[in-house]
Amino acid sequence: MNIAVCVKQVPDASDVKIDKATGTMVREGVPAILNPFDAYAVEEAIRLKEKHGGKVSAVTMGPPQAGEVLKHVVAMGADDVMLISDRAFAGADTWATSYTLGLGLKKLDSLDLVICGKQAIDGDTAQVGPGVAENLGLPFVAYVRKIVEVSGGKMKVERLIEDGYEVVEVSLPAVITVVKEINTPRMPSLKGKMKAKSLEIKPLSAEAIGAEADKIGLAGSPTKVMKVFSPPPKGNRERIDGTPQEQAARLAEKLKELKII
Amino acid sequence: MPIIVKVDICVGCEACVNECPFGAIEMKDEKAVIGDKCTLCGTCVDICPSFAIEMADEPKSAPTEDLSAYKGVWVFAEQRNNKIVSVAYELLGEGRRLADSLGEELSAVLFGTGMDAEAKSLIEAGADRVYQVEAPLLNEFHEDAYADALSQLIKKYKPEIVLAGATSIGRAFVPVVATRVRTGLTADCTALDIDGEKKNLLQTRPAFGGNIMATIACPNNRPQMATVRPGVMKRLPPDAARMGEIIKEAPAGPLTSKTRLVETIDEAGHRINISEAEIIVSGGRGMGEKGFELLREIADMLGGVVGATRAAVDSGWMPYPHQIGQTGRTVSPRIYIACGISGAIQHLAGMQSSDMIIAINKDPDAPIFNVADIGIVGDVFEVLPAFAKKLKEMRG
Ligand SMILES: Cc1cc2nc3c(=O)[nH]c(=O)nc-3n(C[C@H](O)[C@H](O)[C@H](O)COP(=O)(O)OP(=O)(O)OC[C@H]3O[C@@H](n4cnc5c(N)ncnc54)[C@H](O)[C@@H]3O)c2cc1C
Ligand SMILES: Nc1ncnc2c1ncn2[C@@H]1O[C@H](COP(=O)(O)O)[C@@H](O)[C@H]1O
User: Is B171 within 8 Å of A142 (Cβ atoms)?
Assistant: First the structure.
């Protein structure tokens, strides 16, 4: 199976702290990491390769330093990488990102499957996976928590829904997004790390992938960010003191005032 | 780069460095330099006290040909097992408000067969019109068939705004539609408004796990599309006297799908969907396995459901569909009671937009208290049994 995974470099959100005085996010020195959801995508791709043969290609669009995440996934066991990088991609929203990744993916030969993470932890949109599927004209299944079997040009998967899951069969080639229940990503091996070290990454420009200027970067993005602000602080804090019995009684009264009880 | 720092004007005050939500600005030789992390959000342009930062002429994406041809507000009325999910009614409440302020009509889009009563309920909830696509394939969710059906309708009727619930269905297929009709889509919005001047839809959503909020517009393309978080918008009281028209739509050709639904497995234990619950009693590592029985008892008495942190789910105390946070469900109930939960940022990401947060934790410094409206410093095994007892008394 030839599998491509889309991986993104993101700031490490678990390192994000809030400045109590100003209520804004402190982002100095926040390290850039592989989007945690994409690690599940990479792991699943490697497992499929181990079972069915073939190869795993990792694709990212981002600034030159996004090559770091490609090194990481090669250390995990990916075979090929593609870094799509050009000033002209700056400011891309999910529409332009999906278009750009779609063009990059079309350069890969005979793909059977494209795996994306459920969402990126910086934007939290979960829109690029389905957007990529549409750009490639492939069927799509979101929120896959298990790949049950691959056979006869079809794949059976479990898709997470609000109160359980659905078993869905999809014809290949296809695009899926995966959730964290699907596996536990492996640590990079020593051999992988050596390979990653000597990896030379040649970025592909907008021209190299044949991108149309009005479909990439800020210019190609239908959405515009008008304003970014900190969530408003919550007012009217209240603390209930006293013995546990008093606290419990006061809480019950509160809920009664709110007409919950 | 379309954001320019005029070095001769920059006084090196670093205001932009501190305010940049993306940490993209650095000082070099006491002048601001914008780096690769820049997303062109424009915060620095607004903040710069010396007006040294400018946004170069805004490049335009290939715009929709004739914006004024697009009229009306649409709500995608999602159904599961022929039952409309509550976020659809909430969106009709919000959609009514938006349509009225634009002076336009509100329509609902309903997929599936045998749903006449449901179609009527959409009118009672605020719709002027219901487009009903009655294809048997649409009774079940298929990403491709749903995308085909909705894209066809959008191309035919040209709505100005299209809203859908940010559910596992909405977030899966609506991005396919937006990609196909070449327009913008804003994910998981928590507030919507019409810009007074240009009449654009302003879509506000949390990003970075709820650490920042962003307001997004789609000025040059139509329709303007958004998925909206369940539980945030308010539904209207149903009005049986409301009039509206129901239009049965046949798809342009036979709908097909490259996916086949084999079976659906219900795991929640509760019939209620946690994303739609009004009251959530949630537990973390501080509850222990036994403690969750207590939470279930309290949730039942309050008519709510039980939520959990990842720590509790990983310990096997609750199944995954109950996990709340960055890697679980996002919820915004009327009341969220957090018991024995520390309030890690990844957990807060999934619940901090709840109307009211009540926290019980024995550690007075637990970060959960920073977002709580009501804080109780105490041992859950003392406070909660007393609370359960009190509830029983009150119910008589
Ligand atoms: C990429 C990533 C994604 C994640 N996604 C999620 C997510 O989606 N959801 C999520 O919840 N977490 C998530 N986490 C994990 C998160 O960082 C925390 O580890 C987790 O939320 C902690 O759960 P907790 O509050 O139950 O446990 P703890 O942090 O261990 O807190 C337990 C609390 O209980 C209190 N306590 C103990 N005993 C008692 C008692 N008897 N009475 C009263 N209080 C008591 C303690 O004071 C403590 O504050 C994620 C982490 C990462 C890295
Ligand atoms: N710039 C990018 N490069 C490669 N993959 C991406 C990029 N942006 C998003 N993705 C993929 O799309 C998924 C969803 O991202 P998002 O829609 O931004 O939440 C991620 O988990 C990645 O698999």
Answer: yes
Q: Using CB atoms, which residue from A142, A156, A229 is nearest to B213? A: A229
Which of A35, A37, A70, A176 to mutate to test ligand 2, by most ligand atoms within 8 A of the CB atom?
A: A35
Strands B185-189 and B224-228: parallel
pLDDT digits (tens, 9 = 90+) for A188-226: 999 999 999 999 999 999 999 999 999 999 889 999 988
Could you tell me the domains of chain B? 3-55 (3.30.70.20), 67-249 (3.40.50.620), 275-394 (3.40.50.1220)
DSSP string, chain A: -EEEEE--EEE-GGG-EE-TTT-PEE-TTPPEEE-HHHHHHHHHHHHHHHHH--EEEEEEES-GGGHHHHHHHHHHT--EEEEE--GGGTT--HHHHHHHHHHHHHTSSS--EEEEES--TTT----HHHHHHHHHT--EEEEEEEEEEEETTEEEEEEEETTEEEEEEEESSEEEEE-GGG--PPPPPHHHHHHHHT----PBPTTTTT--GGGSTTTT-S-EEEEEEPPPPP---EE--S-HHHHHHHHHHHHHHTT--
Three-state SS for A144-156 is EEEEEEEECCEEE
Could A24 and B19 be called an inter-chain contact, meaning their C-beta atoms sit closer than 8 Å? yes
To probe the interface with A, which of B22, B143, B204, B301 has the most A CB atoms within 10 Å? Answer: B143
ipTM, 2 dp:
0.82
**Mean local confidence (pLDDT), B328-347:** 92
Which alpha helices (H) appear in chain B, and where do they start and end? 15-19, 43-47, 86-102, 116-124, 143-157, 170-180, 288-302, 310-314, 345-351, 368-371, 380-395
Within 6 A (CB) of ligand 2 lie A 6-8, 35, 37-38, 41, 59-62, 94, 97, 101, 116-117, 119-120, 123-129
Does the distance separating the beta carbons of A164 and B268 come in below 8 Å?
Answer: yes
Q: Token digits for B38?
A: 């820049």
Distant-in-sequence, close-in-space partners of B307: CB < 8 Å, separation ≥ 6: B274, B280, B281, B282, B283, B322, B323, B324, B329, B331, B336, B351
Do strands B185-189 and A238-239 pair parallel, antiparallel, or not at all (unpaired)? unpaired
Which residues have C-beta within 8 Å of that of residue A182, sequence separation ≥ 6? A40, A43, A44, A144, A145, A146, A147
Sorted by sequence, the CB contacts under 8 Å of residue A29 that are 6+ apart come out as none
End-to-end CA distance of chain A: 57
- For B125-155, write each residue's pLDDT tens digit: 999 999 999 999 999 999 999 999 999 999 9
B271 pLDDT tier (thresholds 50, 70, 90): very low
Q: Among B10, B35, B6, B11, which residue's Cα sits nearest to residue B23? A: B35
Sheet holding B106-111, edge to edge: B185-189, B224-228, B161-165, B73-77, B106-111, B129-133, B245-249
Burial B273-293 (b: 16+ CB within 10 A, else e): bbbbbbbbbbbbbbbbeebbe
pTM across the whole model: 0.78
Q: Which helix (H) or strand (E) holds B191?
A: strand B191-194
Which domains does chain A possess? 2-215 (3.40.50.620)
Locate the ligand 2 atom nearest the alpha carbon of residue A124 and give its number.
19
